[in-house]
Design brief:
By secondary structure, this protein is an alpha+beta fold. The chain is 27% helix and 32% strand. The strands form eight sheets. An eight-stranded antiparallel beta sheet has the order 18-17-23-14-15-22-19-20. Strands 2-3-1-4-5-11-6 form a seven-stranded mixed beta sheet, with helices on both faces. The N and C termini lie far apart (66 Å).
Length: 699
């Protein structure tokens, strides 16, 4: 079966945004104009096509990223048919991990901002993640019909707060309720979309006289940005020559793909204005799979790095970037195919688990409708039904050309709660439910507390865990009680010290003998794990026992030395010791190492670290005093305050332990008018009184 769309006409994009910037509505309009969804879903009615889990529709926020395919030929049918795969991403900060793993498999992104609130904290987070994966992007300034909307102010914020190089390709005509269309600055024409057919048709008209000067000034900025794409354009530009429309677009495309500039569009998705032009922008300025850097992976020997180019003729390699449980077909594994072709019936290899998987049915999704397909080609995205042992972030590849694509890194959870099933019947179902949810979401963990026998679930924030418990109830009909949230503390040492570890047992039969001296110090590079150095000279500890010493220290680090929390950032140098010809064993040296590590509580100046959260509160001016007072009482360190259209913005660092229930207390202090976002920032030393209390509780 031949390819329907050449790979050069593919666009894999994500639509990313801050909560409530109007991302889901924008995606809905995209599906409507590309002719797939015949009646537009409104988030306000809880009917949006992309938000397909019940909860998303109730809360009006997007949680899982559904992947959808659509086709576009341009507002004036000026292009050959392009195939656009859209990965919808959540904008809520507890789900940053979902955004990160979508960005990993995208080639380009459309960042949606709100015309009145502009660049918000979540935008900064997503922008940093997109920079990390070098994703070329366009910006769509949405909600231009909202009170306080100001297009050029948002463009200025892109420069100031995100350090971007924005190039506005449009200018809004009228703002707030007078917003009626946009000027296409390259064509120097006004575009007005028809209200009668929900913006399916539009007309070009002349630019109003009062806007001509401003439009020409902005157009000059576009031409200059395009001219910097290559020497020939630059020369002509400097000599006062003109660039044609096509050349301007070529220049803007080249610089967008190089991540040097960010084209900016504007409109109002809700009022059906502007999304059509953004779709043209996706085709004109975002890359096809062949225009981004080829993906790299490690071969079987775990050393050689090899590129896989986006071609159907290359060996098959794909990345599983999302796993969802579907009520009708079971497990859906969403994959991005980087190279080669996958047909149903093929056997593929998962190098992470070293297992073979047989590909059964494959589907392409349109939000929650699905079409079955027989094969999927390089550069495409599809969902495979019924894979047994594949988790998020793992590779699937050709049996004879094994490769492990770059792994995704997932952050450690910062908050834990105990869950208990309400009835005996819920007990078994709860285990299954939590297992499935953990397979879908790598930032969510489940473990059993060995001392209490309770099931502990951990995640990225209160909302994250609320939603997990909610999903257990809805999708698996498991009722559970939830304990009080527990903070994931950590430990560290502050001093350098030398400690002797000696384990000797001689009481009939074979004895045990392990004796070592270790120098412990805090790691200088700020990394979290163990840096182990073997400094033994002259074989005073035989080299076959050295790995046991490292293992003993590493295992004790997991259990901590103060209050049973993991110890971070330790450098250990084994520099002396002794052994016994008969009695020494790996076990004895491991125990000696563990004993030496425990001594750090006394000699290493061990301290307790607590997770600090970066909190941003937007509040009306009259509540400002209460909000700041409350944050100070929660041991918050105010980092800065500024004005924004939506109120005063307070930025602050607060210990997670003090933030439980903050949403409720902020709501009552400001009558629900203030909003806040919170994300994990770093671990910092806890004050003595707090540390003493935590250690006493664990004793």
């Amino acid at each position: 079966m031949a390819r329907k769309t050449p790979i050069a006409r593919y666009r894999n994009i994500g639509i990313v945004a801050h909560v409530d910037a109007g991302k889901t509505t924008t995606t809905e309009r995209v599906l409507f104009y590309t002719g797939l969804s015949h009646k537009m879903g409104e988030v306000h009615d809880g009917a949006a096509t992309m938000d397909w889990m019940e909860q998303e529709q109730e809360r009006g926020i997007t949680i899982t990223s559904a992947a959808t395919t659509c086709f576009w030929r341009g507002m004036q049918k000026q292009f050959d048919e392009h195939r656009i795969n859209i990965i919808d991403t959540p904008g809520h900060v507890d789900f940053t991990i979902e955004v990160e793993r979508s960005l990993r498999v995208l080639d380009g992104a459309v960042v949606v901002l709100c015309g009145s609130s502009g660049v918000q904290p979540q935008t900064e987070t997503v922008w940093r993640q997109a920079n990390k994966y070098k994703v070329p992007r366009l910006v769509f300034v949405n909600k231009m019909d909202r009170a306080g909307a100001d297009f050029l102010r948002v463009v200025a914020q892109l420069k100031e707060r995100l350090g971007a190089a924005p190039v506005p390709l449009q200018l809004a005509i009228g703002a707030e309720e007078l917003f009626r269309g946009v000027v296409d600055l390259i064509k120097m024409k006004v575009i007005t979309w028809s209200e009668a057919d929900q913006g399916m048709t539009f007309e070009y008209t002349e630019v109003p006289a009062e806007l001509v000067d401003e439009c020409l000034r902005l157009r000059e900025g576009i031409v200059e940005a395009a001219a910097e794409a290559n020497d020939a354009f630059m020369e002509r530009y400097l000599e006062g020559g003109e660039l044609t429309e096509d050349e301007i677009k070529q220049g803007i495309r080249a610089r967008t793909l190089a991540n040097e500039i960010v084209p900016v569009f504007c409109g109002s998705a809700f009022k059906n204005k502007g999304v059509q032009a953004v779709l043209d922008g996706v085709v004109e300025y975002l890359p096809s799979p062949t225009e981004v850097k080829a993906i790299e992976g490690t071969l079987d020997d775990e050393e050689t790095i090899e590129e896989r180019i986006a071609s159907d003729d290359a060996p098959f390699a794909a990345l599983a970037f999302k796993i969802a449980t579907d009520p009708f077909v079971g497990v859906l594994t969403f994959i991005r195919v980087y190279s080669g072709v996958l047909k149903s019936g093929d056997a593929v290899f998962n190098p992470i688990t070293s297992k073979k998987e047989r590909i059964g049915r494959m589907v392409q999704m349109h939000a929650n409708q699905r079409d079955e397909i027989k094969e999927v080609c390089a550069g495409d995205i599809a969902a495979v039904i019924g894979l047994k042992d594949v988790s998020t972030g793992e590779t699937l590849c050709d049996l004879n050309h094994r490769i492990t694509l770059e792994r995704m890194d997932f952050p450690e959870p910062v908050i834990s709660v105990a869950v208990e099933p309400k009835t005996k019947a819920d007990q078994e179902k709860m285990g299954v439910a939590l297992g499935k949810l953990a397979q879908e979401d790598p930032s969510f963990r489940v473990k059993t507390d060995e001392e209490t026998g309770q099931t502990i679930i951990s995640g990225m924030g209160e909302l994250h865990l609320d939603i997990i418990v909610d999903r257990m109830r809805r999708e698996f009909s498991v009722e559970a009680n939830i304990g009080k949230p527990q903070v994931a503390y950590r430990e560290a040492i502050r001093n350098t010290c030398e400690i002797e570890g000696k384990f000797i047992r001689q009481s009939g039969g074979r004895g045990q003998y392990g004796h070592i001296w270790v120098r412990f110090e805090p790691r200088e590079d700020g990394a979290e794990g163990l840096e182990f150095i073997n400094g033994i000279v002259g074989g005073v500890v035989p080299k076959e026992y050295v790995p046991a010493v490292e293992k003993g220290i590493g295992e004790q680090m997991k259990n901590g030395v103060l209050a049973g929390y993991p110890l971070l950032g330790l450098k250990a140098t084994l520099f002396d010791g002794s052994y016994h010809d008969v009695d020494s064993s790996e076990m004895a040296f491991k125990i000696a190492a563990s004993m030496a590590t425990k001594e750090l509580s006394k000699k290493g100046g061990a301290v307790l670290l607590e997770p600090m959260m970066s909190v941003e509160v937007v509040t009306p001016e009259e509540n400002m005093g209460d909000v700041v007072g409350d944050l100070n009482r929660r041991r918050g360190l105010i980092q800065g305050m500024e004005e924004s259209v939506s109120g005063k913005v307070v930025r602050c660092e607060v210990p997670l332990a003090e933030m439980f229930g903050y949403a409720t207390s902020l709501r009552s202090a400001t009558q629900g008018r203030a909003t806040f976002t919170m994300e994990f920032l770093k671990y910092a030393e806890a004050p003595n009184n707090v540390a003493a209390e935590v250690i006493a509780k664990r004793a």
